[in-house]
Design goal:
Blueprint (H helix, E strand, L loop, with lengths): L16 E4 L7 E4 L1 E3 L4 E3 L11 E8 L6 E2 L7 E6 L7 E4 L9 E3 L4 E4 L8 E4 L4 E8 L1
Antiparallel strand pairs: 1-2, 3-4, 5-12, 6-11, 7-10, 7-12, 8-9, 8-11
Length: 138
């Protein structure tokens, strides 16, 4: 008998199943399939669906020291780029972002984040009227 193959036992019935999330609805239990040719299990591996929506916008901070929330865009990820014309730093963070605690971007710098909506991000600027451009992917 080959290694890894158990002898047939008529008193044993295998019941194997797995979770499937192939639909947008609730997950369901799916039975695995046996391939009699290879004597192996057929397994369907489903990866994430490729993003289909790209959004873009530009946000500026009118008054330095006053944080600004990014526009709402449902997404899986965002890329934020400090405008190339900025003279000062941009500070990226949450609702409490400031020059004291934000993630710093100099002109042309970028940061990429996995988030569910762009509106959870706020920016502040060292110089009046400077800002960022961003792309969201969903």
């Amino acid at each position: 008998m080959s290694a890894g193959i158990l002898p047939k036992d008529s008193n044993f019935i295998a019941a194997i199943g797995g979770v499937s999330s192939l639909t947008d609805s609730a997950s369901s239990i799916r039975a695995f399939q046996y391939d009699p040719t290879t004597r192996g299990m057929l397994v369907h591996i489903a990866g994430e669906v490729a993003p289909t929506t790209v959004s873009h916008a530009k946000t500026t901070v009118t008054t330095s020291g006053t944080r600004v929330q990014l526009a709402s865009n449902a997404c899986k990820s965002i890329v934020i780029k400090a405008l190339s014309t900025n003279l000062g730093k941009i500070f990226v963070g949450s609702v409490t972002v400031s020059s004291a605690n934000g993630f710093q971007l100099s002109a042309g710098d970028t940061v990429a984040l996995d988030i569910s909506n762009s509106n959870v991000i706020y920016i502040d600027a060292e110089t009046n009227g400077e800002g960022i451009s961003f792309l969201t992917i969903n």
